[in-house]
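#structure-requests
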Amino acid sequence: VQAYPHLKLVFTIRDPFTNGITENIDEKLYESVELTGFTISGTTKAIDKYFVKYGIDPKYKSKYRRQFQKPLFLIIFCESYRLMSKAQRDNVNLRQLYESYLTSRNVKVSELVDEDEKRNVTLMCMRQLAWFSVEQRRSGLIPRQNARRIADKICPMRTWKNNLLRALLIENILMDTLSDQEVGDLVMFEFE
């Protein structure tokens, strides 16, 4: 980068990983900008804009105000809401929101793994990964080898090109994260 003074390299790091990455970089070589999500006024503007775009009843604004401060949650909520029936919308909870969101993302994932979308392999895999995270990792990050094993059981006999784990990574439903010396490479849920 120093050889090209007009070139800027931009990268983002989530809070839990900042120390592990930035501790080995000379602070003079980079400028740090901290993004904390929406401000209170920014949250209100974003919610208003998205609710109008998706035709969402304003009564839901107060129910999830705290969660809406995370931009990804606002998108997940809006995408999920539009897929729900009136009865589901009136009694919606966080689990239903995420499951509806994963079901909507399943169309593309199923295409990538060459699978019948009616099987909803995305939701099936994410449920098993969540269970594994809670039961085996105390709600922690998941060793990539375990995620691969779970994905391969759901969609067996796939080359990496059509692998379910790969599709979930490509579609940003899961993401690679730092490695652990004891268990190796880890993956985590894209939405926390």
